Amino acid sequence: MDEIDARLIAALERNARASMTALARVTGLSRSATHDRIARLEERGVIRGYRAEVDAEAAGLVEAMLTVRFAAGQDNDAFAEAITAYDHVARVHCVTGEDDIVLHARAATTSAINALRQKIAATEGVASISTATILSTRVPR
Fold it and tell me: In what order do the strands lie in the sheet with 126-133?
């Protein structure tokens, strides 16, 4: 990945719906060369997709970050894979430090977030779980 790819990715992160003409201006390349770069980034898995960015507050959703700590010897990879199928789980991160998993949840109510929390807490091997409700988001990327 070179400087042109980095500028292209930054432009797409700011606006994934930018026109090829606008992206070509950012890269300094022709539209077809810019298109080819995007295709290569997609083929390599650097760009995995394009999504709608939903404002949780405007959509009436509650967001929370849940941190999970496992008992010694537990396999967090299998757990992380399993919870991606749970309702209201938006993102799952395996992390270093005292906690093992950080997950981002979205739901219509705090009760739904709490039900998710209870489901995770009842999972064999989970030593502790903590939840922080998100009050506002400063950088929505």
Answer: 89-94, 101-107, 62-70, 126-133
Residue 81's pLDDT is 82
Residue ranges and CATH numbers for the domains of the chain are 3-43 (1.10.10), 62-133 (3.30.70.920)
Per the CB < 8 A criterion, the answer to whether 2 and 9 are in contact is no
Contact 103, 47 (CB under 8 A): no
Tens of pLDDT along 24-78? 999 999 999 999 999 999 999 999 998 888 888 889 999 999 999 998 888 778 8
Write b or e for each residue in 111-132: b if 16 or more Cβ atoms lie within 10 A of its Cβ, otherwise e.
Answer: ebbeebbeebeeeeebeebebe
